[in-house]
Amino acid sequence: MILDVRDLHHSFGEINAINKLSFSIKHNSIVSILGPSGCGKTTLIRLIAGLEEIQKGQISFEGKLVANEKFNTPPEQRSISYVFQDFALFPHMNVKENISFAASTKVNKKQLIEQVIQLAKVENFLDKYPHALSGGEQQRVALARSIAVQPRLLLLDEPFSDLDTNLKKEIIDDTLHLINSLDSSAIVVTHNAEEAMFLSNVIIVMEKGRIVQIGKPREIYFNPSNVYVASLFGEVNIFKTKILNNKCETPLGILDTKDFKDNQQVNVVVRPEAIKLNVEKSPLTSPNSGVVVDSKFLGNSAMIHMTVNDSNNKKHHIHSKLIGEFLPAPASSVSFSLDLNHVFIFPR
Ligand code: ATP
What we know:
- The protein is α+β, with helices and mostly antiparallel strands.
- The protein has 2 domains: 3-231, Rossmann fold (3-Layer(aba) Sandwich); 237-347, CATH 2.40.50.140.
- The chain is 22% helix and 37% strand.
- The strands form 4 sheets. It has a 6-stranded mixed beta sheet with strand order 6-7-8-3-9-10, with helices on both faces. A 5-stranded antiparallel beta sheet has the order 13-12-11-14-20. Strands 15-19-16-17-18 form a 5-stranded antiparallel beta sheet, with no helix packed on it.
- Helix 2 packs across helix 3 (109-119), helix 2 packs parallel to helix 4 (135-148) and helix 3 (109-119) runs antiparallel to helix 4 (135-148).
- Adenosine-5'-triphosphate is lined by residues 12, 15, 17, 35, 37-43, 191.
- The site of adenosine-5'-triphosphate has 12 residues, from strand 2 and helix 1.
């Protein structure tokens, strides 16, 4: 294990920023921490880096205890480097000096500096000072500097948020290869689920200071542990209903269930991509049908807004997402079927 976090708890006055949090990270892995604003991601990273003293719990690094309630190994003695949202570059040093300073104690200093300059694509502004750089440029310098330390563990707090889409993909890709080639591990904080899936072998999902799920990207996507995790990958249809005889009724049909008792209140989450549509020539009265309200072109997919009547004739507004240019006109009649891989039932 490169990192082991046990029973961590951290409050700011009344606010429980981190709540009984435990996890460990294997050597040579890249782990994403995914969660909404204010769920405690930065606080956790600051505790791991040693920038915040532990109130309760403990952190071990490569099998050695580095911090608990009684002591705190200083950040510079942890072989951990970090990039925070505010970059914290040295203002009196230009870009090259910022990077060189970080690599100053390394044997392969010259080669390493050249390598990280190339990786972070900062060669065009090596002589500039931080105040004269854009947010995205500062972010790239901060990334270069953190890698130049050759840390055992790299902590990246939203490191790619200020970059435009194409540059972001390129730099994420290069960063991943470099982390792998350096025999390092990394924890990357993000609130973008796609980025987390692209970046990491393991995703830790946080909500309100707690871990709600840890797993491989595929597990998180296909076996989400609650409504929040299921909604991370885009908007979802949610139906509030209850269980009767191992079944529950939704506007999209009656679903078989297991592991629930009668009368259990549940949320049924249906991803838009679960709903497959067919345009019908004439209006249908069958249960599995609806009427299109609008169709939106999204590039490689289309979002269809439709109304569906439930068994009590109550109307529901439902979103279906289909790959390709499927754009039925408003007022078209459609029939639908469900791909149950994208349907989840959670107790309420
Ligand atoms: P974001 O994605 O917006 O950066 P986050 O998930 O990183 O959010 P944290 O910055 O860790 O969240 O904050 C967790 C909670 O602790 C929030 O409610 C925040 O307001 C509070 N908090 C964080 N730092 C402090 C502080 N120094 N003093 C008081 N409250 C704080």
